[in-house]
Write a structure and sequence with these properties.
Blueprint (H helix, E strand, L loop, with lengths): L7 H6 L5 H15 L15 H6 L4 H14 L1 H4 L6 H13 L1 H9 L16 H11 L14 H21 L4 H30 L6 E7 L1 H4 L9 E9 L6 H20 L10 E2 L12 E2 L1 H10 L3 H7 L3 E5 L1 H15 L8 H14 L17 H15 L11 H10 L5 H25 L10 H10 L5 H22 L3 H8 L10 H11 L4 H12 L4 H19 L3 H15 L3 H9 L1 H13 L1 H9 L18 H13 L4 H24 L5 H23 L9 E6 H4 L9 E7 L7 H17 L9 E2 L12 E3 H10 L3 H7 L3 E5 L1 H15 L7 H18 L17 H15 L11 H10 L5 H25 L10 H10 L7 H24 L4
Helix pairs in contact: 2-4, 4-6, 4-7, 6-7, 6-9, 8-9, 8-10, 9-10, 10-12, 10-19, 13-15, 17-18, 17-21, 18-19, 19-21, 20-21, 22-25, 23-24, 24-26, 25-26, 25-28, 26-28, 26-29, 29-31, 30-31, 30-32, 31-32, 32-34, 35-37, 36-37, 39-40, 39-43, 41-42, 41-43, 42-43
């Protein structure tokens, strides 16, 4: 073998992090074995140790352990030096588990098990080995040796070394994770049997008791972790006629207590799985041991729904297996009747949600077991379907999650594709959980946040992309499990309502309504009618609906209004169901179907837009289709559509139809989080400009000799910050003309444009509000440039200067709007800033507006525009800063609120913390206004008081169902902080 370079650089290339320490370990090995050539010769044996270490999860840990092992027991490494495969097993164990690394250094003889090829050892053989190790004797084993407990703990570690080697050396650890988990359960069975043998020796009278131990949870299902509580139930019967049941339970209780103590104790020899008997009747408050008759009485009369779900995993494990099996046979009939108990579904759903809600916020996204999209979601889904269908179908009555998942797929309760995805996700997450626990042999289900620990995990899972690939895979599987978890609730509903599985258990109408209610449907009876209408018949359309409905129901349930979603889906499908492209899209483009469900269950506005033109559903096919189109492209489409119609009414209808489609694109992009708030504001502003430009062209058909017009955008349109419910604040300017009739014709053109776009019809109206023009409502609709100049030089008042701060080109002739904007620059960016008297005028005007415009009987704090800390507070504060300082700070000369705010921070005019408070409130209020319109179908500045509407709005903003109060609290907290800033900057001495 060519000599290896072992410089620190070479070690770093091979995956070592602490290269200096690694080099010292190598040099110690060299010195100990008197190898010539220094560290470069240290690992050049026949097996290529350095190459093997490079393939481990933690090369530093592996090398350090090998050095210490060699130092303590050099004879142990000798046989490995000539066996590459055995050396590989030793290396991966030493580098894959810090705890087992330390164990092998402390107990070198246990490394010998790695000389043999790893294999699954039968449970009976493990049991026999463990009992022999602790010196247990007799048909009913008793281990009286004083050192038996430590021998049991050491036997546990020795077997873990062997099992870990099989796990860590597997080419595909995810493929064998269930087999590894099953062998860990076999080991737990043996250890509990051993602990029982030790406990018997310490309790007088033990020979008079038959103590059965029943495994529950993961151990019962034979899918145990490396470190986990072993959930058990103890049950006892007399061993002879002279012992009463009460006496047997008393003795058995002392044995069970001793057993639990042995299993939970820690010593220099280590520890084993902790036994947890809290799933017994009455939990911690109940007796530790009961007789079979006592158990039967309890489960007949007093057990709760969740206890039967727990009993799904019950398995005779240790002690007197006949007694343990007697308990299993008592509870099994109850398990398969649990789904018929009152409130079963609601309580099961609530139990899962409660677990998620109790997770600490800083751990929820890293919680592999209990977090949303984690292991518990898979297990919960599988168990629920077993409990529902296992009543009449014994094919799905297994204990282990993956095996039961396969059974459910084979029995057609879960689709094959969904089953395969859930199987793959669960295998990955269980393997990830195993590796995290194995490293330190600590009970944890949290994905680490330490970069080095993530790197070790990724290397152990052979992920070349490192920590980034690991996190991406975790997030992807978590997302997928969340979606699949939802879908698995709905497949039974489909079987019951659509009669797809005629030879299997069907839900009654009452059960189906109960299930729909649990999923969040307010009117389950109506939902059932819609499902029947969608799935009745044998034609192509119905077949596709049948395939889609299980998933669609799940997606509806994730939205704020499942009932509205299902009804709208029926309406859209009836309108488009026979269209070939629609059928293909529904069948083949799952993303489009999911997006459609989310849109339909979230927004009355988008549903209204969609029902008027169902073909716009095509836009849901991709993210790119939902991005705002360029203004030039939209205008081109509008003008092209208008040209195809001779009649003005038809031409403007074509323009408005395109606007409707673009509104759907923007609204859908907002709901689906493809389009952010800033991009949405620009898209809506560009759409308004293109629509008015197109309307000007169409209107000239009826006013052909009207002069050219410039449309100056004001307010949110001018700032390119429009919301879904914003109108267009504007004023109109024309060139100077000697034609005395030009103003009349220009005014006629403007009136025509406004009336065409505001007219009621099948498409949303666009209101052009010209009240901010010179002299407001009392002034002429259109002025010439010279007229504008004369007015602003002589008569302009403070509020008009403030309105001009947000002026920009809106539509029409850009040269005219540019000339006007240049003309008014001295007014909106005044030299010397804002006079004190004008500031006072602005404050008085704002006070009057709030007094007059906040609707009576409403809580001002719920008003997103005029309430304290609302949009008006923020925008007026920023505008005052612009009026005061824009003459000296050119960056402030912008019609947009947030860029002006950032410019003020950069110029030192606004504290960065204050700006953050203002921006957060501005964004939240702007989003709320959009979501109010989306949910209610009509614009409002006031947060609704209807709890269902607020919950729908909160859900669209990313809150969980039922967290509407959290949204209100967050909004009030945000606006309260914002209002404090406004009080200082706008109303206080800092203004």
């Amino acid at each position: 073998m060519a000599r290896l370079a072992t410089t620190t650089g070479e070690l770093a290339r091979r995956g070592f992090l602490d290269v200096d320490e690694a080099l010292r370990d190598l040099e110690e090995l060299v010195a100990r074995h008197d190898l010539p050539g220094g560290a470069g010769r240290a690992l050049e044996g026949d097996v290529g140790w350095l190459r093997l270490l490079e393939a481990t999860a933690d090369p530093d840990l592996a090398l350090r352990g090998l050095n210490r092992l060699d130092e303590k027991a050099p004879e142990v490494l000798a046989p490995f030096a000539v066996d590459a495969e055995a050396s590989g097993r030793l290396a991966v164990v030493m580098g894959g588990s810090q705890a087992l690394n330390h164990h092998l250094v402390a107990h070198p003889a246990d490394a010998a098990v790695l000389l043999e090829a790893p294999r699954r050892v039968p449970g009976e053989q493990i049991r026999a080995q463990v009992l022999q190790t602790i010196g247990a004797e007799g048909d009913i084993p008793v281990a009286a040796d004083a050192g038996a407990a430590d021998a049991l703990r050491l036997a546990n570690r020795a077997h873990l070394v062997r099992i870990a080697a099989r796990d860590l050396t597997s080419e595909d650890p995810c493929a064998i994770v269930d087999d590894i988990a099953a062998e860990l359960a076999d080991l737990a069975d043996a250890l509990v049997e051993g602990a029982l043998a030790i406990a018997r020796a310490q309790v007088p009278g033990q020979e008079h008791v038959r103590l059965g131990i029943v495994a529950m949870g993961k151990c019962g299902a034979q899918e145990l972790n490396y470190i986990s509580d072993v959930d058990v139930v103890f049950v006892a019967e007399p061993a002879d006629e002279d012992t009463s049941s009460a006496r047997a339970v008393e003795i058995a209780s002392r044995i069970a207590a001793k057993l639990s103590q042995i299993c939970s104790a820690h010593s220099a020899a280590g520890s084993i799985w902790q036994v947890d008997a809290n799933l017994r009747p009455d939990g911690k408050s109940g007796p530790l041991v009961r007789s079979l008759s006592s158990m039967e009485t309890y489960y007949d009369k007093w057990a709760k729904n969740w206890e039967f779900q727990a009993m799904l995993k019950a398995r005779a494990m240790a002690g007197d297996l006949n007694v343990a099996q007697g308990f299993v046979e008592i509870v099994q009939p109850h398990v398969w009747q649990a789904a018929e108990r009152e409130h079963f579904l609601a309580e099961t759903q609530a139990m899962r949600q409660r677990v998620i809600s109790l997770l600490p916020a800083n751990q929820a996204s890293r919680e592999i077991k209990l977090g949303a999209g984690g292991l518990r979601d898979v297990e919960f889904s599988v168990q629920l379907l077993q409990l529902v269908h296992g009543r009449a179908d014994d094919r799905v009555r297994g204990r282990a999650t993956l095996a039961s998942l396969r059974d459910l797929v084979d029995a057609c309760y879960i689709g094959r594709a969904e089953g395969a995805e859930m199987d793959a996700a669960y295998r990955f997450q269980r393997t990830l959980e195993h590796r995290i626990q194995l490293y330190k042999l600590r009970r944890t289900h949290l994905l680490p946040d330490d970069e080095r620990e993530l790197r070790v995990l990724a290397r152990g899972l052979r992920m070349p992309g490192g920590a980034e690939e690991l996190l991406d895979t975790w997030k992807a599987t978590s997302r997928r499990v969340r979606g699949l978890h939802q879908r698995l609730f709905y497949s039974p509903l489909l079987a019951a309502v659509t009669r797809l599985h005629t030879d299997e258990l069907k839900l009654t109408a009452d059960q189906a309504r109960d299930r729909l209610r649990v999923l969040g449907f307010q009117d389950p009876a109506a939902a059932l009618r819609h499902i029947k209408a969608l799935t009745a018949g044998v034609n192509r359309k119905v077949e596709i609906q049948r395939q889609l409905l299980p998933a669609m129901l799940g997606w509806f349930a994730e939205g704020p209004n499942p009932d509205h979603g299902l009804l709208s889906f029926r309406q859209v499908s009836e309108a488009l169901g026979e269209s070939p492209w629609y059928l293909r899209a529904l069948r083949d483009e799952g993303e489009m179907a999911e997006r459609l469900a989310r849109i339909l269950s979230s927004s009355r506005l988008t549903v209204d837009l969609l029902k008027r033109a169902p073909e716009t559903v095509r836009m849901l096919s991709s993210d790119q289709s939902l991005r705002p189109r360029a203004r030039e492209d939209v205008l081109k489409s509008m003008l092209s559509a208008a040209k195809r119609h001779d009649a003005t009414a038809d031409a403007i209808a074509a323009v408005r139809a395109i606007r409707r489609a673009e509104l759907f694109r923007l609204a859908a992009g907002d709901i689906l989080e493809v389009t952010g708030l800033d991009e949405l504001g620009r898209g809506l502003s560009d759409l308004a400009g293109a629509t008015i430009d197109a309307a000007l062209v169409v209107a000239r058909r009826e006013v052909p000799d009207a002069p050219e017009l410039g449309v100056v955008a004001l307010g949110r349109w001018g700032g390119r910050e429009m919301g879904l419910g914003s109108d267009c604040d504007a004023m109109f300017v024309m060139a100077d003309s000697q034609d005395q009739d030009a103003t009349r014709r220009a005014t006629q053109l403007v009136q025509k444009v406004r009336s065409m776009l505001a007219a009621q019809g099948p498409d949303p109206a666009l209101d052009i509000d010209a009240d901010l023009r010179p002299e407001g409502k009392n002034g002429p609709m259109v002025r010439s440039l010279s007229g504008m100049r004369s007015y602003y030089q002589r008569w302009s008042v403070t509020w008009e200067a403030q309105a001009l701060v947000r002026a920009s080109h809106g539509a029409g002739d850009p040269a005219l709007t540019a000339a006007l904007l240049e003309m008014v620059d001295p007014l909106r960016w005044p030299e010397g800033g804002l006079e004190r008297s004008r500031l006072t005028e602005i404050r008085k005007l704002k006070s009057r507006m709030e007094a007059e415009r906040i609707p009576r009987g409403t809580d001002p704090k719920r008003n997103t525009k005029l309430g304290p800390g609302g949009l008006s507070d923020i925008e007026w504060t920023v505008q005052v800063l612009q009026l005061q300082h824009a003459h000296e700070v050119p960056a402030l000369r912008t019609p947009s609120t947030l860029p002006a705010m950032r410019a003020a921070v950069e110029a030192g005019l606004l504290d960065a913390h204050d700006a953050t408070e203002l921006e957060q409130a501005w964004r939240l209020a702007s989003q709320l206004r959009n979501k109010i319109l989306l949910v209610r179908g009509r614009a409002s500045d006031v947060i609704p008081i209807d709890a269902r509407e607020v919950d729908a709005i909160a859900t669209m903003l990313g809150y969980d169902r039922g967290e509407a109060s959290h949204l209100i609290d967050d909004y009030w907290r945000t606006t309260r902080r914002c209002a404090a800033v406004v009080d200082r900057l706008f109303w206080g001495d800092q203004a």
